[in-house]
UniProtKB/TrEMBL annotation:
Protein function: Catalyzes the reversible synthesis of acetylcholine (ACh) from acetyl CoA and choline at cholinergic synapses.
A Gene Ontology biological process term: acetylcholine biosynthetic process
GO cellular component terms, semicolon-separated: cytoplasm; neuron projection; synapse
Family of the protein in this entry: Belongs to the carnitine/choline acetyltransferase family.
Catalytic residues, chain numbering: 145
GO molecular function: choline O-acetyltransferase activity
PANTHER family, per the entry: CARNITINE O-ACYLTRANSFERASE, CHOLINE O-ACETYLTRANSFERASE
Reactions it catalyzes: choline + acetyl-CoA = acetylcholine + CoA
Domain (Choline/carnitine acyltransferase): residue spans on this chain: 3-205
InterPro entries in the record: Carn_acyl_trans, Cho/carn_acyl_trans, Cho/carn_acyl_trans_2
Keywords: Acyltransferase, Transferase
Lineage of source species: Eukaryota, Metazoa, Chordata, Craniata, Vertebrata
Superkingdom of origin: Eukaryota
Name by which UniProt lists this protein: Choline O-acetyltransferase
Length: 206
């Protein structure tokens, strides 16, 4: 199987495929900013909005395994799950959660997104690495420990911080002028059974 060349971006409880390698070329920072801006705009579309499927992954392991089996009955869902499970990582673009931005608040937001009514569905807790960037400046990483120890993520985070501090010119604010294919929204077929499972996960998270 070829190496994955995409990440998944969560925005407003919706999931999008962002190809980070196009025509054998890695996207640069300016290109990535452009693609993320496109995703934010796409996520604003009320007509395209789908149920908060990510809430299912906030449930217990057994409950999520059962919900995943239900999702897998539909080919559309199988394709979307495959894209998530094969992606390099998740980037979660969170909305602001509230006026108080203490370390404790940020830590809890990383864990549960501020609840189901805020960013709780803007996660995929079954994925080992999720980089969370909040509109209010609350940023962090969510790690699912099964594949590796926490120190791996600590070293990865330290590398990223050193890169950003050592290369301030890479922190772009201008959009790219390159012609890039649009990111793709992941589609889900939500049967009444799936909607019932989402409602149950929503209630537990709250």
């Amino acid at each position: 199987m070829p190496e994955p060349e995409h990440i998944i971006v969560a925005c407003k409880n919706q999931f999008f495929v962002l190809d980070v390698v196009i025509n054998f070329r890695r996207l640069n920072e300016r290109d990535l900013l452009t693609q993320l801006q496109k995703i934010v705009k796409m996520a604003d579309s009320e007509e395209e909005r789908l149920p908060s499927i990510g809430l299912l992954t906030s449930d217990g392991r057994t409950e999520w395994a059962e919900a995943r089996s239900v999702l897998m009955r539909e080919s559309t869902n199988r394709d979307s799950l495959d894209m998530i499970e094969r992606c390099l990582c998740l980037v979660c673009l969170d909305e602001a959660t509230g006026p108080l931005l203490s370390d404790t608040t940020c830590a809890t937001v990383m864990l549960h997104g501020g609840g189901a009514t805020k960013n709780g569905g803007n996660r995929w807790y079954d994925k080992p690495m999720q980089f969370v960037v909040g509109a209010d400046g609350c940023c962090g990483v969510v790690c699912e420990h099964s594949p590796f120890e926490g120190i791996v993520l600590v070293q990865c985070t330290e590398y990223l911080l050193k890169y950003m501090i050592g290369s301030p010119s890479k922190l772009v604010r201008a959009a790219s002028v390159s012609e890039l294919p649009a990111p793709r929204r992941l589609r889900w077929k939500c049967t009444p059974e799936v909607l019932k499972l989402i409602a149950s996960s929503n209630e537990k998270l709250e």
